[in-house]
Amino acid sequence: MGRLDGRIAWVTGAGTGIGAATAERFAAEGATVVITGRRREPLEAVADRIRAAGGTAHVRPADLTKAAQVAEVAGGIAREFGRLDVLVSNAGLNIVERDWKRLSPAGIDELIGGNLTSAFYVAQAVLPIMREQGGGVMIHTASMAGRNIGLMSGPGYVAAKHGVVAMSHTINQAECINGIRSTAFCPGEVNTEILKKRPNPLSQQELDEMLQPADCADMILYVATLPPHVTMNEVWLTPTRNRGYVRALGVKL
Ligand SMILES: NC(=O)c1ccc[n+]([C@@H]2O[C@H](COP(=O)([O-])OP(=O)(O)OC[C@H]3O[C@@H](n4cnc5c(N)ncnc54)[C@H](OP(=O)(O)O)[C@@H]3O)[C@@H](O)[C@H]2O)c1
Prior knowledge:
Helix content: 40-55%
Mean pLDDT: 97
CATH topology: Rossmann fold
CATH superfamily: NAD(P)-binding Rossmann-like Domain
Strand content: 5-15%
Bound molecules: NADP nicotinamide-adenine-dinucleotide phosphate
Structural class: alpha/beta
């Protein structure tokens, strides 16, 4: 018996990285997963792996910075399944030209739109479904950059992820009486495609020492399977050999 048997879960940013690992982990635990990203191809690859393992996946591509596309996916979930038990709002991005010297208005729009506005659209679209059914759990992938102010991730990303953390906490404040729980999930560095946008390339050893997508999927599954009376408001998950700490100790990375 799976820990998510009979549950409906929507995972965004599910074509790669943390989202792909979470969708596969959820499906292996019996959830029916709806998976979203902009590109259909990586989503189909994830769905193929889920189906090959005996699971159930529905591919629903969308650009989550467009409110109408978000509403279409959420409306489809309500019509098709009549409920949504778990939302993993995980889509996000960063850009190479992230520092103040190179940041452009288009870059600002991309960072705020792709990390914060999109998360708002998704939360706003699923809340009516969860209210109607009397509960549900949301996991918002923010970042340690949503808690610690620093320049490495860039000011737009840091500001957007602080916004995601704040947004998640307000959901608990407003929706606890409806049985809705929200977690701000703050990972440190995770070995995924987003790191290809780092201005300074990382070594294989550095990538190997980071969190891996499966580590995040395990944590997200834990949060998703907590009993309905328990809210995990915020989670920090970081690599033990945390490069920020190691640097501060003056030890060679
Ligand atoms: N890796 C890290 O070190 C790290 C640390 C802290 C937090 N995070 C956060 O973790 C989350 C997952 O990222 P990841 O590390 O797994 O990197 P990733 O592999 O690049 O995954 C991000 C996913 O988001 C999707 N996405 C981006 N913009 C979208 C949009 N407008 N609409 C729909 N989907 C969109 C991308 O797919 P498409 O391009 O096909 O749309 C991609 O599959 C992000 O929110 C990221 O900010 C990552």
